[in-house]
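User: My instructor asked us to take a sequence, write out its structure as tokens, and then describe one feature of it. I'm not sure where to start. Here is the sequence I was given:
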Amino acid sequence: MAEAHQAVAFQFTITPEGIDLQLSHQALRQVYLSGLRSWKKRVTRLKNNVITGVYPASPSSWLFVVIAILATMYTRSDPSMGLIAKIQEHLPVSLGQHKNLLSKKCRTVVSAVLFSTLLWFSLIFTMRLCLKQLLSYHGWMFEQHGKVSNTTKIWAAMVRIFSGRQPLLYSYQGSLPNLPVPAVKDTVKRYLESARLLMSDAEYERMTTLAKEFESSLGNRLQWYLKLKAMWASNYVSDWWEEYVYLRGRGPLMVNSNYYGMDFLYVTPTPIQAARAGNTLHACLLYRRKLNREEIKPVSPHCSADRCYWVMGETSRFFCVYLDSLIHWQDSEYVAVFHRGRYFRLWLYHAGRMLSPREIEHQIQHILDDPSPPVPGEAKLAALTAGDRIPWAQARKEFFSSGVNKRSLDCIEKAAFFVALDDDEQGMMGDDPAGNLDRYAKSLLHGKCYDRWFDKSFTVVLYKNGKNGLNAEHSWADAPIMAHVWEYVMTTDCFQLGYTEEGHCKGDVASSLPPPTRLTWDIPCQERIERSLAVAQTLADDVDFHVLPIQDFGKGAIKKCKISPDAFIQIALQLAYYRNRGSFTLTYEASMTRLFREGRTETVRSCTSESCTFVRALEGGESKEVCRHLFRTAAEKHQHLYRMAMTGGGIDRHLFCLYIVSKYLGEESPFLKEVLSETWRLSTSQTPLQQVELFDFVNHPDYTTCGGGFGPVADDGYGVSYIIIGENMINLHISCKHSCPQTDSHKFGADIKKALVDLLELMSPEKQDPSRAESPMTVRRRHEVAYN
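Assistant: Let's start with the prediction itself. The structure tokens for your sequence are:
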């Protein structure tokens, strides 16, 4: 009970002599320092809000405008064209008994200041409007590499003029354009083009008829409502996408929604688990401090930072029977820690300051050394977050809505994030490094199904041998946001904080640190926990995962072919899938729409007629000259689709929102119903390396991030995540299900690698074949006729 007494600032007892008041000066000091830190954060947040609110101007520019107006007036000029005099007429001369409250000269100065302020706000509004119009221009994305038009040059110069200097993280948010609503006929046309190669003639003719009926009747009505929403909301997609794709899902989050991120591939900075935890958690706090101060530089003026607000923001999914919701708290000063079936509260701030890495290591070691056993039901409690959502919502309402269980659950949900201390050793190690890497991925994705809190924004996982990783909940933000955090944490851990020669964190430990607090439970619903665990365990056991680091080549070799690396890999995936399954399939590639306010993702349908024509030509033994031409055509098509998706010209989010509107109106659309029921058997995503400057692949080539991955979307399909690292490495994360006899992650991985090698050999300049029996267009037409 020592920690409980330390938390009490004062005690009093009633004696015959009166009231005996005892003050704890140490506790009062802690309260004072904690409050002081909180107020400093409020002041910083207020200052940043003011700076962001007047951007691209600055608060000091107001003084410049006031001085300029006053100086002009003293030269007997009236820059306001009579407005200052009008304002002066309405200022009070007296107030009650105070006559001559403002002299004429004083009223003139006050009128000039008021006019200057109005002028300043008008200039800010005009600059923001101009910047918003400038950021609505996306023609620069469609220009050839190295060929910049005069229009784009003028546009870039104007953006630099209107975007101001030294922007904070959220400075550009108010100037970003809203996501445009495409025309129904354009979306339908692009959909039919993407669907043609995957349908027979009869199926395509039927779908074309449904599309035309929709376009000419119901589509226009739904579009009207969607445009109305787009005028009112910042983004006509994001809130519905968050609700209907993520928060209304009643299946398990684990595997189906959550994703993971890995540690360095070849290096473990320290083998001491507590030390790695100390640096990792401290680096997370440093990132949160930079985020709160808005010191993280925006990627560019035309890139939304909206979801960064949720990072490190004490976010949890709060669930009801039919719909979850995201709850966001601010300024949590502790994390919830899980170890050997017990839950702890670990404070990360003391005496108004952030704990040092060495102090966090000391606290983590205290948890690791704690011999107390879990209470009945505690060890596997988190399985409720891994199973179906309805049983968890019902159990929460019945058993966790009051008393000690509610207090402990609140402690977990209001924590900055969740920390799992695993007794396992993971990583690419031992006699079977490839197999261990696969097991490492599965451990991060689902663990033991009860040692990750899947409702938290993210869980930091720390293994016994010093490896780490994370598991992230998907609804609050997409992978690039969390990847940005994890890049900073990994590099800060190794290159800035570092370790002693013995592998411990640097620094000293304050003697007054209170120990971590064990959370208490009274859990009568152990049968429900076991049922949820059984559902989650069945799902986890079915996941077939393979992590494939390709070190033979990378972006450098691909760029020599003068092909976009992303297009190169996507076409390789089409070739690999065709060789693996003997057919083509609907393919999902995630693209970001952060050029727009509150933008999240859009779908790139990367299985195109051009890519299919190329694959058939290559597999059909056509000449290299023809295949090269078809390959470049397919790559250009893919790049065009990707740019269209990024600039608001995608297909699937528009159709998704039209479908939601139809449901609200109670209208049935056979066309939309069929489109929304299509199965994505190949779901892909690139995780870009965003902060290359934090890594040093020349002097520290072993400090290479491994990226992350996700579970399969379809029961009979594949999930493929990839990250391009430096010039000479590509990491692939491939998932599928054991229950499907047609899928095998290792075989598909081998097919992808062979496809990449074959494409490099095809496009290598020194292996060009000058002979050409037929023109590429002739071959393409012949293959299309044969396919149809």
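For the description part of your assignment, you could build on this observation: Residues 567 and 635 are 5 Å apart (CA to CA). Try explaining in your own words what that tells you about the chain.
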